[in-house]
Fold this protein.
Amino acid sequence: MKKLLVLTDFSANANHAEAAALHIARKLGNGICLYHTLPYIPLIPSDSAGPYVTESASMLFEDSKERLIQEADKLREIDVMTQGSHVDINGRNGEGGLGDVIGGLTTEPDIEMVIMGGRSGDALEHLFGGSDTATVIRKSHRPVLIVPQDAAIEIPATVVFAADFAAADISAVIFLQEFSSRMGFSLNIVHIATPEKAVTEIGAEIAFRKYLELHALKYTQVPGTDIHRGLQQYCEEKNAGLLAMTHGKHSFFSRLFGHSEARAMISGQQIAVLIFPPEFKYGGEAQPA
């Protein structure tokens, strides 16, 4: 059975993301793995002949297990109140920073997606500056769904994918096509066309358009000089419940969120954000030439 890997620190933000994950898992027929990690604590004896540091670490580890059991029980209580098949929910904890463990966790074949909460209701507010979220996105091998605390937890009716004509966009579209058939949402592909992109990226655009034509997909090209404002307006017009994009060194993500005003504007929409990380690969289809 495929699972959603839900990262939790037992905060209110994490609890909201867990509730969203339950909705998604029920729709997909997936299980949920709640995951909590503790910082690594080295083996150091106490100078006062008291307990070893590792004894304290062991207590923290056991406390983490107990809290995971409680979180899983709370989700099961919500799940049993809903008609239909029930979600398999379990907890798992580990040691080390998220950056140390997320790569290995997301190469496990049963993990389909990572879900985590957005701090202070702003899904994108802490994607920058070396935060845990940024680290997860850089090192994950699966898509990362960030759920703001103020975002709706229902299944989105409309998903907007912000295309940048990169090869990685095609892998993301393949995933979203299959995902939309299982989730029942409408997929809108949009490209905010700035003057410089129209000239410098014509080859990539042709390749992307060729792929879309082969698969009977369409995209909307919105001209403008302000990428983030154009994307915000498009999401509002479509009443999008989820914004998706790829993340790479020279990607749309990097260009869009290179300015604080762009981060504030998009995060202020209070919609969930699905990021396809640099390590993400999906589908066995050859990329168009």
